[in-house]
């Protein structure tokens, strides 16, 4: 691993400086010997301008393969730097489902013009995928599948596979249909190869794991990878076969969703392109909105503290513990939110489980709060006196219980109102627990200290 | 999607209450008609005890398929509730690579006893995988592959595939080797099916994308899914074929790594099992260590504030902004850390890029700080006076710049010392930026206010 990484870093650097010097000969010399996979990595690390130049220096045979493996966002950027006829050749060369991924990244006018330039056959296939809503499996399936009838023999089916293999997205998972195109089973090519030539499909096939074309692409992708299958038939509302959903698309969907979730958990937008080739201003833009929203939220803490300003002036020592207390509340809330957000993404928890989750998090939070509270009481009490110790201990207990409960329920509530659970997540919860934690703190302090 | 989820919720609930009432007939009636995939979901949502009972109620034909698809952690738990001979049958029925996943979750004595009970052939295959280090591809590969020689004809190769298909992990990607078992290419079964029977493999094969057996499993999994391939040959240090690495294992590795990263980002340990079936104490345990570490870190803020207690007593208004300022610093640091951690996981950034990342984050942080600083100056200045406004504005500028830089570099430094980048992540960075933010704040305040 280390060896390969270092090499690719060197290639990228050599390419960067050759392109900066406009030395195309050296650049071509650097990029020609590397594999398709390596070329993809190197290209994604270059700036948009250098990438278009470097792409043209690739050996002709590799160019389409490399293009197919690039991230759709990068594909879109790259197209901007190529000539119209180059763009059209690449676009025509993509599979219909990859084409739709790319179109989702392009301005509507460009996407429309490209679609128009396709051959009628390819246009029809692409349009059938484009007809499904965003984030549905229909939009991520391939309409180029090989299916077979239940009364086909193994030999007939293999002959059909041979005939269609060149065009089809996959031939390894073969949906079996009846005369109304309703899916009645699935056979694996592997099983056909070990079966006798005259065996009948309907006796070989297994019960189909199918997915509806309008279902969520993320949950279908999760299901496919959990099952460890290579593909699933995609069906319409009457169980008729309309396409096939393959594991490479599932993996891409999950990677995309996980990038989104990770970004949201950190209070930022997903860059959707490689970090080092993203302009500084684009990075700043991906963060500024959330930072402002969170700052506005945090200004609530200024108001809460103003209310208790007299108390603070009276017992300055109280202000020493503010960051510790709200920090601990934030951490406890974040832990709960992170666990529940991930459980939601994995399908382990659903929004209807809100009471069950709340019940668990109250207990987890109380347990953690009890432990921290006792520690806080002993340590702070010994140093700052037992009155302050009591305030800190009780506050930690209360804050942890409240924060874990809020943190655990927030992602479920977000999901229930059809928002992304990760949006109402860590930084948001920190801000929320900051304000509530401060109120708890001062209420307890006033009661214990009698002020 | 909703329909299926609701149904499974109902099944799970019905099963739970039937099992609680010891009503096995109703329980069997609930679980019998659902598919393998659904049974997996339902079982993973039950408690350990109920799961073992429910598992035994599954139709015999489905039981092994369901077991294979369960998460290895859940498999291990389930085994504890089954009879020895049931356990041995299940264990013998697994593929060697799945068996090793499971063994990694079992106590060493149990794993050893099970390994000993295998047939000599299966034991040999399993031992060859077990010989590779944890987190290496060797440990996640299958030793049951179909390979072919470069001088084989298509007909010869297909005959070989037919002969081996029943045992092999996959027959769709066929490594091509020379007489010393060195991998010289790869052919896809699909391409064999459309080629002429007498064509020679060496003229059909493509350059192989291979992976070394001791390479990191995560980076290999990422590479495989990025390429959209179904499998890659695994080779030893002399490029000799030792196994095959398939996309279903790659997807499982990535899901596991992403759960780990998500958990660490939230300052908790990955539960490694479904949330709702995890005991409360286990959840608390996964959080308590981090919470204590972070609380100890946060006690630094108490010390920093004690140093400036006199200043705070003099200008109580300063304490009002403490949560806002450190919160904004934490958010800015978290945003940078999240972006860079994800870029590291995706291979877009390497630890050698630390200066480049630092250079970018200084600028991003400065830009964000400038914006927030100006806003903070105007708003706070208008309400609390221009002196305080100046302090807040300058502090926001400085804190954002420092926090983004630290947040961006921390994951890279962690990686450089071979620690998990996600460990030194969000809550850790918040704690770190809290203390440095407070120092910056009071230094600026003393300078501007002349106290």
UniProtKB/TrEMBL annotation, chains A, B:
Membrane topology per record: Multi-pass membrane protein
Localization: Cell membrane; Membrane
Keyword terms: CBS domain, Cell membrane, Magnesium, Membrane, Metal-binding, Transmembrane, Transmembrane helix, Transport
Entry GO CC: plasma membrane
CDD domains, per database record: CBS_pair_Mg_transporter
Bilayer-crossing regions: 288-308, 364-386, 392-414, 426-449
Primary location: membrane
GO molecular function: magnesium ion transmembrane transporter activity; metal ion binding
SUPFAM superfamilies: CBS-domain pair, MgtE membrane domain-like, MgtE N-terminal domain-like
Domain called CBS: residue spans: 141-203, 204-262
NCBIfam families, sorted: mgtE
Similarity-based family: Belongs to the SLC41A transporter family.
Subunit (UniProt): Homodimer.
Function: Acts as a magnesium transporter.
Protein name, entry field: Magnesium transporter MgtE
Name of the gene encoding the protein in the UniProt record: mgtE
């Amino acid at each position: 691993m280390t060896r390969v990484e270092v090499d690719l870093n060197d290639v990228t650097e050599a390419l960067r400086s050759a392109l900066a010097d406009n030395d195309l000969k050296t650049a071509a010399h650097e990029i020609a010997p590397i594999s398709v996979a390596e070329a993809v990595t190197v290209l994604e690390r270059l700036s948009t301008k250098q990438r278009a130049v470097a792409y043209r220096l690739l050996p002709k045979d590799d160019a389409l393969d490399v293009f197919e493996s690039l991230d759709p966002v990068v594909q879109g950027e790259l197209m901007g730097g190529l000539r119209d006829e180059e763009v059209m050749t690449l676009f025509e060369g993509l599979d219909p489902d990859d084409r739709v991924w790319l179109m989702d990244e392009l301005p509507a006018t460009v996407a429309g013009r490209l679609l128009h330039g396709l051959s009628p056959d390819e246009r029809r296939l692409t349009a059938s995928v484009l007809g499904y809503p965003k984030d549905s499996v229909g939009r991520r399936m391939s309409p180029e599948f090989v299916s077979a009838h239940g009364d086909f023999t193994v030999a007939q089916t293999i002959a059909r596979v041979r005939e269609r293999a060149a065009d089809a997205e996959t031939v390894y998972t073969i949906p079996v249909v009846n005369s109304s195109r309703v899916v009645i089973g699935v056979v694996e090519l592997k099983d056909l190869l070990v079966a006798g030539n005259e065996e009948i499909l309907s006796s070989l096939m297994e019960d189909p794991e199918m997915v509806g074309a309008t279902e969520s692409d993320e949950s279908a992708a999760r299901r496919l990878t959990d099952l460890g299958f290579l593909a699933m038939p995609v069906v319409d509302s009457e169980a008729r076969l309309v396409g096939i959903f393959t594991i490479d698309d599932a993996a891409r969907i999950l990677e995309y969703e996980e990038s989104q979730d990770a970004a949201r958990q950190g209070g930022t937008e997903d860059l959707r392109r490689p970090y080092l080739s993203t302009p500084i201003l684009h990075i700043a833009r991906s963060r500024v909105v959330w930072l402002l929203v969170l700052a506005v939220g945090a200004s609530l803490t200024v108001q809460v503290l103003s209310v208790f300003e007299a108390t603070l002036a009276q017992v300055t020592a109280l202000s020493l513990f503010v960051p510790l207390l709200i920090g601990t509340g934030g951490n406890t809330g974040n832990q709960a939110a992170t666990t529940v957000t991930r459980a939601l993404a994995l399908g382990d928890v659903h929004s209807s489980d809100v009471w069950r989750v709340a019940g668990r998090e109250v207990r987890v939070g109380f347990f953690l709060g009890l432990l921290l509270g006792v520690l806080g009481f002993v340590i702070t009490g010994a140093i700052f006196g037992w009155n302050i110790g009591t305030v800190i201990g009780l506050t930690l207990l209360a804050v942890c219980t409240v924060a874990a409960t809020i943190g655990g329920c927030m992602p479920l509530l977000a999901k229930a109102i059809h928002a992304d659970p990760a949006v109402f997540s860590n930084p948001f919860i920190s801000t929320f627990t900051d304000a509530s934690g401060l109120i708890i703190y001062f209420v307890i302090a006033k009661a214990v200290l009698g002020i």
